[in-house]
# Entry
Amino acid sequence: MPRGPRWRGGRGGVPCPRHVYRFVEPCLLLLLHRNQTHGYDLMEGLKEFGFAENPVDSSVVYRTLRSMEAAGLVTSTWDTTGAGPPRRVYRITAEGDRYLAQWVADLRETNRVLHSFLKAYDEHIREGVGEYH
# Structure
C-alpha cells in the first residue's frame, strides 16, 4: 500500500468520500429547490445524499450558503415567527435553479466516467492481474 504525503487512505481503513466539498452546493440547491428552509434542516437533509456516515460540518454548510447568497444563487430572510431565536430561511433563486441544472449535467457526465472507470477496475481485478493481489 502506498505511503507518504500523497497517500490518502480512508479513515481507519474505512472508505470515505473524497473531493465532495463542492458537491455540497448542488445538494443544498436541490433541497432548496424542493422547499425553502433554514440551515439546520438543510444539514439534516444532506443525509439523503450519503452524508449520514460522513456528516458535513455545519461551518461548511453555512459558509457555502453565504457564498451562494453572495453569488445570487440563493436568498435569505429572517424568520422571527417561531418560538426561539430568529432563524435565516433560505430560498433558491432563478439563477440558482439554472446553476443546479448545470451541476446536474456535469454530475451525469461525471457519473458516466466514474462508472466506466469502476467497471474497468472491477474487470481488471476479476482477471487477477496486477501487483497488489
The CA atoms of residues 32 and 104 lie 15 Å apart. Confidence is low (pLDDT under 50) at residues 1-8.
